[in-house]
Amino acid sequence: MPITQEVFEAFLECPTKAYLKARSADSSDPALAEWQQRSRCEFRKNGWVRFRSIVPAAQLYEGSPPLHTLKQRSYRLILNCNLTSQELQGSLDGLELAPRATDGPHGVYVPFRFVSNEKVSTNDKLLLAFDAYLLSHAGSKTPRVGKLIHGR
Asked: Could you tell me if 132 and 82 are in contact, meaning their C-beta atoms sit under 8 angstroms apart?
């Protein structure tokens, strides 16, 4: 059974909650969870709209790119990307192609995550690290940095 982003996020809050979520027996308040999910999705969608208005369409990819696209580094920005490996699976808010000077001669995709909170928490940083780890397992070069886009 692969480790999903949702199970990892639940583990950061409580190991028992993660176990129950992995076994599909999560007993948390559904109304609160639904509100939090809607809030995150709205913040994420607003961020994607801003990026679409800044980045030319030819340099933007939406969805899950094929592995060869990641390796060729064809796009400057990839939004709403789902990645899966044998052990891991998750959904990344986006990937940005870092300038070549910052990470070797070929550049590398750097994950970014939208966080609606004004203050970045340790869990937000760990979830971004999970995104980078997932990216490396999907066959891309491991990024040394990531970006958290947060607050107003």
From this structure: no
Between 21 and 127, the higher pLDDT residue: 127
As a whole number of angstroms, the distance between CA 92 and CA 84 comes to 11
Report the candidate in 94, 99, 100 with the shortest Cα–Cα distance to residue 47. 94
Of 66-75, 99-108, 134-143, the least confident? 99-108
CA–CA dist 137, 2 (Å, integer): 12
Among 148, 93, 91, which residue's Cα sits nearest to residue 119? Answer: 148
Instruction: Give the 3-state secondary structure of residue 45.
Output: helix
Q: pTM surpassing 0.90?
A: no
CA distance 115 to 1: 28
Q: What is the DSSP-derived secondary structure letter of residue 121? A: -
3-state secondary structure 8-43: HHHHHHCHHHHHHHHCCCCCCCHHHHHHHHHHHHHH
Q: Is 95 helix (H, G, I), strand (E, B) or coil?
A: strand
